[in-house]
Design brief:
Layout: E1 5-8, H1 21-38, H2 43-57, H3 60-69, H4 91-101, H5 113-123, E2 128-132, H6 137-146, E3 158-159, H7 161-164, H8 172-182, E4 189-193, H9 196-205, E5 208-212, H10 224-231, E6 247-249, H11 255-261
Parallel strand pairs: 1-2, 1-4, 2-3, 4-5, 5-6
Helix pairs in contact: 1-2, 1-4, 1-10, 2-3, 4-6
Length: 267
């Protein structure tokens, strides 16, 4: 079946895991929010809970929602109360916090010219460009702006976790929601991802997959930023030998070769 749609993850996929930005977001970016807004007693206590639930759900926003349902958030301070039906954790608050408080300079500005050329070529083709992230929407939009790709993702073809909750990747329902919204069948899609959980989920639905491994991984030479990021995503390290992986590259700059082999882009 002809490929009509390419679905891109964002974090550690469109920019390299070695920037250190993911480690920053998943540590200080998450724990400072949790201390300031959810009244955790320390960043250490916040990190422990965040990592526990991220291991289950692969999304900080989904994980904190589940933690509240499980009664795992700290007690409210004296004199503070909730209205009937009001939630302690609002994913949109995390979204706004990340979009305004994270250190986006760590991303290093626009991507390399080879990556930009690939997106420019895709934008001139008949192939749909779709973004699907387990990060919240405003945050994802900020990342795309910072790395010079915002113009290639139409608003109705960009999905953050806040667009699909209570689902998130790798839930089958989250992928089905996105596919329905963009009018594509799984067999018509390529999923570009760094997460093995999400690669396997996409493959099980019938998509072709491209795994983004991170610069230096094939030579086992990941930098400190990549190693710190992976410590916040336990059990999900890229594995190009996995049967769910159709092709693997180190960075998004290299996908042009695969897309030409698969006749999605002209040689």
């Amino acid at each position: 079946m002809t490929i009509t749609t390419i679905i891109f993850d964002v974090d550690d996929c469109l920019y390299d895991v070695g920037t250190g930005f993911t480690a920053h977001r998943n540590t200080d970016g998450a724990t400072e929010f949790m201390v300031d807004n959810l009244h955790f007693p320390s960043k250490e206590a916040a990190q422990q809970l965040r990592d526990e639930y991220f291991l289950k759900y692969h999304s900080t926003a989904k994980g904190l929602s589940a933690a509240e349902e499980d009664g795992r958030l700290p007690p409210l301070p004296d004199g503070v109360s909730l209205q009937p039906g009001e939630k302690r954790f609002d994913p949109n608050e995390l979204d706004k916090y990340w979009a305004t408080n994270l250190d986006f300079s760590m991303l290093g500005g626009s991507l390399d010219q080879r990556s930009l050329d690939t997106f420019e070529s895709l934008s001139r083709s008949s192939t749909q460009i779709v973004g699907f992230s387990n990060g919240p929407r405003l945050y994802v939009e900020r990342v795309l702006k910072e790395i010079g790709l915002a113009q290639y993702f139409e608003p109705n073809k960009l999905f953050g976790v806040t667009d699909v909750l209570p689902h998130c990747k790798p839930d089958k329902s989250s992928f089905e929601l996105v596919l329905n919204k963009v009018g594509a069948l799984p067999e018509q899609c390529i999923m570009v991802e760094d997460s093995m959980k999400n690669i396997r989920a996409a493959k099980s639905l019938g998509m072709k997959t491209i795994l983004i491994m991170g610069k230096g991984r094939k030579q086992q030479a990941l930098n400190k930023g990549a190693s710190l990021a992976e410590a916040t995503k336990v059990g999900d390290a890229p594995d190009d030998k996995d049967q769910a992986v159709d092709a693997a590259v180190e960075t998004v700059a290299e996908i042009d070769t695969i897309l030409k082999e698969w006749m999605v882009l002209s040689a």
